[in-house]
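protien #1 (seq + structre)
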Amino acid sequence: MLAPVILAASRSDKMRRFISAAPGTKQVVDRFIAGETVEQVVPIIKDATGKGLEVTLDVVGEDITTPEQATAARDAYLELIDRLKDLGLGTRAEMSIKLSMFGQALEGGHEMALANVRPVVEAAAAIGTTVTLDAEDHTTLDSMFAIHEELRKDFPQTGCVIQAYLFRTEDDARRLAAAGSRVRIVKGAYKEPASVAYQDKAEIDKAYVRILKALMEGEGYPMIGSHDPRLIAIAQELARKAGRKLDEYEFQMLYGIRSDEHIRLAAEGHRMRVYTAYGTDWYGYFMRRLAEKPANLLFFARSILTKG
């Protein structure tokens, strides 16, 4: 299995330097990263929404080592909100946030992350849009869920992400599937030990379906994060059985992956949101995209060989 090796490499400074310097890297990074600046990503937002799609925007970057870097990450999102205000798209363009960027792993990190994320959530609400808190490795989740719960007291539309490969997630899903909640379910893209997570793909898929069923039968708003055609079909059937209308759940897929499917689902009347990452600190995000699908890794390898 290559995925665990790639995920381990995502934490390696040596590998970061090697991958960043590889001749074919930019070609592949451009497939998954929409740009480096807000101005570069605005035309992509306009293009997607013009096609009937919705977007969630992620300013990539996770290796925060100082409070000043966490503040800068907050400010990058506030800058993004200023541009989204100009576009006037409402919830068609929302934001996804990793609390690690906001100082969660630093000393006093829980309080720091909450203090940094609150003004972003407040500013998002002021322009009619929302924020979803991304899930990271399992050691961060209790803090993430606590911050999510605190934010929802004033901003109930704040969403969060759960990961199907973790044993804990079925209980989390049942707790979160309440009226007004917004929950994105994904398979999971971090290297997790067998003590806390399923390691077998078939077991992860089964867990995904069980969790999705609980969300569909609950009172919240499920957001199905998957490119798997089988899981997408199952999600549609579960929604039908739960009596959900097309605007009572949504699909989410990554920018640069299965773009034709984005259009197809939107044309069928589904809410289809494209997870769109941008920024200069792309390495960790990029490596998880390679780990998720062997075809991505092969594409990268061919690019390096042909550019060498």
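ok now protien #2
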Amino acid sequence: MSHVSPYTKVRGGRKAVVGNVGRPPVGWALPGILFFAVFAIVPLAIAVYLSFCRWDGLNSPAPVGMDNWTRLFKDHEFRQAAWLSLVLTSVSWAFQTPVALLLGVWAAGRQRSRTFLSAVFFIPLLLSTTAIAMLFHALLDPNFGVIKQIGPWFGIDPNIMGSSTGALLTVAFVGGWQFMPFHTLIYQGGARQIPEVLYQAAAIDGAGMLRQFFHITLPQLRNTITTSSVLMIVGSLTYFDTVLIMTKGGPGTDTTILPYLMYRTGFQTYDLGYAAAIATALVVVATGLSLILVRFSGFGTMRSTREGM
């Protein structure tokens, strides 16, 4: 139980009790709790219920027990989509994390051009995902896009979207290009919280910039890396509009990840009960990966890096 102490104010040499200082009442959290319940918990509960039903979107849902889940675990297309989602998530994390980390640490400095370049880096995050996907779809068109002209200069096949590996890597790149500024801001904020005295002491001991980065910056950003990684994993697992516009799950089914499979099942074949089962499985996978990351990173027992400073 936390101790709540009265706040005192001195008036004419006397101390007057003004009020109690402590945790705010629960009422302050009610708007956020209600918003989360209405737009997250309730839809999730409905999706879980529909995953045990057969529903075409027009007639009333008919309970079918575990039929959708039994079909899910036997469905080769679902297993392939789950694997592709994990691959896309891994590639996105490996691409975004080092770049965002380095940009964030750099942006936390005092360079003269830092403010202007940070604003330029932030621009992709201001654009809609649909607009960005349409832009890259046009640029990568093998017949009329820029890739047809400059691709051969760098040894890139102009029909890069026609190969399974190329299409998946392109989706990961486009998503990373848009959302990397968000993670850069997270790392920038984390880097600015590192006590300057640590770098001053390291400089006195003769440590250069590289040693300071690996022995001070990275350890101090451990919790920040975990936070960014959880957000990145959840975001990568829910890529949809980029895949819909750029590849439509192709070539073949080589970019049919779980969100797109859910969309195609629900809104093209009108099997909304099975689509709800896919959606629920996606939530379970995303939540499970996030919990594993938090558990093994020690994030749950983190303490302030400025404690004792």
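Confidence is low (pLDDT under 50) at residues 1-9.
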